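Figure 3 (text version): structure tokens given as input.
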């Protein structure tokens, strides 16, 4: 549906670093709508939704989403995109913030938007968190993971 695609394109515009209108972004959602970050298994509702948009912009003030493909299928809009920006603010993690590195990110992602009566009911964001972390300089510690597994196996 053309109007559903327009709604989603407006959502992306409102979440751009140079616009950043969290209240406008939230207004596009149904009252019970959700924003689901599938890479972290976190779900956000109501006033949390604009906070997520603002939080990303704190870490990447110039955040931009390069829309590669947009396909509307009735009340579902599928988008292939790249999340781009510069890491100029702390990046929150469960154990603390990763300090700004100044690194550029260009992260592949796919978003599925589910609409009801022209409003966003559910937004599922699938971004490649491993690419994201690598681009800001966070690399997995495979050695510690292997050693922990080996230690657990020998003590069992």
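Below: residues designed for each position.
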């Amino acid at each position: 549906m053309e109007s559903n695609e327009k709604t989603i394109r407006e959502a992306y515009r409102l979440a751009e670093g140079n616009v950043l209108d969290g209240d406008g972004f939230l207004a596009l959602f149904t009252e019970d709508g959700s924003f689901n970050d599938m890479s972290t298994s976190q779900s956000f509702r109501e006033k949390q939704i604009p906070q997520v948009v603002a939080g990303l912009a704190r870490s990447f003030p110039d955040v931009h989403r390069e829309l590669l493909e947009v396909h509307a299928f009735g009340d579902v809009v599928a988008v292939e995109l790249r999340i781009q920006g510069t890491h100029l603010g702390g990046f929150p993690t469960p154990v603390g913030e990763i300090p700004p590195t100044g690194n550029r990110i260009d992260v592949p992602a796919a978003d599925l938007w589910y609409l009801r009566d022209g409003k966003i009911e559910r937004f599922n964001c699938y971004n490649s968190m491993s690419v994201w972390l690598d681009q800001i300089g966070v690399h997995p510690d495979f050695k510690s993971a292997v050693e922990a597994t080996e230690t657990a196996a020998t003590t069992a």
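The domain at 2-155 is CATH 3.10.450.50 (Nuclear Transport Factor 2; Chain: A,).
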